[in-house]
Design goal:
Length: about 140
Protein backbone atom coordinates (compact mmCIF):
# COMPACT_ATOMS: atom_id res chain seq x y z
CA UNK A 1 0.00 0.00 0.00
CA UNK A 2 1.28 3.43 -0.99
CA UNK A 3 1.29 5.85 1.96
CA UNK A 4 3.25 8.68 0.36
CA UNK A 5 1.89 12.20 0.53
CA UNK A 6 0.57 13.82 -1.66
CA UNK A 7 -1.04 11.08 -3.66
CA UNK A 8 -0.51 11.76 -7.29
CA UNK A 9 -3.02 9.27 -8.64
CA UNK A 10 -5.91 11.52 -7.50
CA UNK A 11 -4.89 14.28 -9.85
CA UNK A 12 -4.55 12.17 -12.93
CA UNK A 13 -7.32 12.28 -15.48
CA UNK A 14 -9.30 9.22 -16.34
CA UNK A 15 -9.40 8.23 -20.02
CA UNK A 16 -13.19 7.65 -20.01
CA UNK A 17 -14.05 10.98 -18.40
CA UNK A 18 -13.73 14.16 -20.50
CA UNK A 19 -11.95 17.17 -19.05
CA UNK A 20 -14.94 19.47 -19.43
CA UNK A 21 -17.43 17.32 -17.48
CA UNK A 22 -19.72 19.28 -15.18
CA UNK A 23 -21.38 18.24 -11.99
CA UNK A 24 -24.92 19.42 -11.28
CA UNK A 25 -25.99 19.75 -7.69
CA UNK A 26 -29.66 20.29 -6.85
CA UNK A 27 -30.10 22.64 -3.93
CA UNK A 28 -33.40 22.63 -2.10
CA UNK A 29 -36.40 20.39 -2.13
CA UNK A 30 -38.05 19.48 -5.42
CA UNK A 31 -41.05 21.59 -6.30
CA UNK A 32 -44.30 19.65 -6.15
CA UNK A 33 -46.84 20.45 -8.85
CA UNK A 34 -49.73 22.63 -7.76
CA UNK A 35 -53.30 21.46 -8.17
CA UNK A 36 -55.18 24.79 -7.59
CA UNK A 37 -58.02 22.97 -5.82
CA UNK A 38 -59.21 25.88 -3.66
CA UNK A 39 -59.26 28.27 -6.62
CA UNK A 40 -61.23 25.69 -8.59
CA UNK A 41 -63.77 25.29 -5.80
CA UNK A 42 -64.31 29.06 -5.67
CA UNK A 43 -64.79 29.25 -9.43
CA UNK A 44 -67.18 26.30 -9.35
CA UNK A 45 -69.39 27.85 -6.69
CA UNK A 46 -69.35 31.44 -7.94
CA UNK A 47 -71.09 32.05 -11.29
CA UNK A 48 -70.11 28.81 -12.99
CA UNK A 49 -71.07 29.90 -16.49
CA UNK A 50 -70.03 27.55 -19.33
CA UNK A 51 -68.84 25.09 -16.64
CA UNK A 52 -65.29 26.49 -16.69
CA UNK A 53 -65.03 26.27 -12.92
CA UNK A 54 -66.25 22.67 -12.97
CA UNK A 55 -63.66 21.75 -15.62
CA UNK A 56 -60.97 23.37 -13.49
CA UNK A 57 -62.20 21.36 -10.50
CA UNK A 58 -62.03 18.12 -12.49
CA UNK A 59 -58.44 18.78 -13.57
CA UNK A 60 -57.49 19.86 -10.05
CA UNK A 61 -58.73 16.57 -8.62
CA UNK A 62 -56.89 14.67 -11.36
CA UNK A 63 -53.70 16.59 -10.57
CA UNK A 64 -54.03 15.78 -6.88
CA UNK A 65 -54.64 12.09 -7.64
CA UNK A 66 -51.59 11.90 -9.89
CA UNK A 67 -49.46 13.66 -7.29
CA UNK A 68 -50.54 11.17 -4.63
CA UNK A 69 -49.70 8.30 -6.98
CA UNK A 70 -46.25 9.77 -7.55
CA UNK A 71 -46.68 10.66 -11.23
CA UNK A 72 -45.19 14.17 -11.14
CA UNK A 73 -45.32 14.75 -14.91
CA UNK A 74 -49.03 13.97 -15.22
CA UNK A 75 -49.77 15.97 -12.06
CA UNK A 76 -47.96 18.99 -13.51
CA UNK A 77 -49.83 18.66 -16.82
CA UNK A 78 -53.25 18.43 -15.13
CA UNK A 79 -52.32 21.28 -12.79
CA UNK A 80 -51.50 23.51 -15.76
CA UNK A 81 -54.84 22.68 -17.39
CA UNK A 82 -56.63 23.44 -14.12
CA UNK A 83 -54.77 26.75 -13.94
CA UNK A 84 -55.82 27.68 -17.49
CA UNK A 85 -59.47 26.88 -16.80
CA UNK A 86 -59.29 28.80 -13.53
CA UNK A 87 -57.88 31.86 -15.29
CA UNK A 88 -60.63 31.71 -17.90
CA UNK A 89 -63.31 31.25 -15.25
CA UNK A 90 -61.95 34.10 -13.12
CA UNK A 91 -61.78 36.49 -16.07
CA UNK A 92 -65.31 35.52 -17.04
CA UNK A 93 -66.54 35.89 -13.45
CA UNK A 94 -65.13 39.42 -13.31
CA UNK A 95 -65.97 40.51 -16.86
CA UNK A 96 -69.62 39.42 -16.90
CA UNK A 97 -70.78 41.45 -13.86
CA UNK A 98 -68.70 44.41 -15.08
CA UNK A 99 -70.41 44.28 -18.47
CA UNK A 100 -73.86 43.99 -16.88
CA UNK A 101 -73.12 46.93 -14.59
CA UNK A 102 -71.90 49.00 -17.55
CA UNK A 103 -75.05 48.15 -19.51
CA UNK A 104 -77.30 49.09 -16.58
CA UNK A 105 -75.53 52.42 -16.08
CA UNK A 106 -75.64 53.14 -19.82
CA UNK A 107 -79.35 52.26 -19.88
CA UNK A 108 -80.14 54.56 -16.95
CA UNK A 109 -78.26 57.46 -18.54
CA UNK A 110 -79.97 56.88 -21.88
CA UNK A 111 -83.39 56.57 -20.25
CA UNK A 112 -82.91 59.87 -18.41
CA UNK A 113 -82.01 61.57 -21.70
CA UNK A 114 -85.11 60.11 -23.36
CA UNK A 115 -87.33 61.34 -20.51
CA UNK A 116 -85.82 64.84 -20.74
CA UNK A 117 -86.31 64.90 -24.50
CA UNK A 118 -89.91 63.73 -24.20
CA UNK A 119 -90.66 66.44 -21.62
CA UNK A 120 -89.30 69.04 -24.04
CA UNK A 121 -91.33 67.52 -26.87
CA UNK A 122 -94.62 67.74 -25.05
CA UNK A 123 -93.83 71.20 -23.68
CA UNK A 124 -94.46 70.02 -20.16
CA UNK A 125 -91.19 71.43 -18.99
CA UNK A 126 -92.27 74.98 -19.84
CA UNK A 127 -95.63 74.40 -18.20
CA UNK A 128 -94.05 73.02 -15.05
CA UNK A 129 -91.55 75.87 -14.93
CA UNK A 130 -94.33 78.51 -15.21
CA UNK A 131 -96.34 77.00 -12.38
CA UNK A 132 -93.30 77.05 -10.11
CA UNK A 133 -92.78 80.78 -10.75
CA UNK A 134 -96.35 81.65 -9.75
CA UNK A 135 -95.91 80.31 -6.21
Amino acid sequence: MDTSYPREDIFTTHPNKPDNAHTVVDIGAPITPRDHLLWSLCNTVYLNLFCLGFMALVYSVKARDQRVQGNELAARRYGQKARCYNILATVWNIALPAMVMALVITGIVHLSQVVNASLDLFSLRGYLDNTDDDN
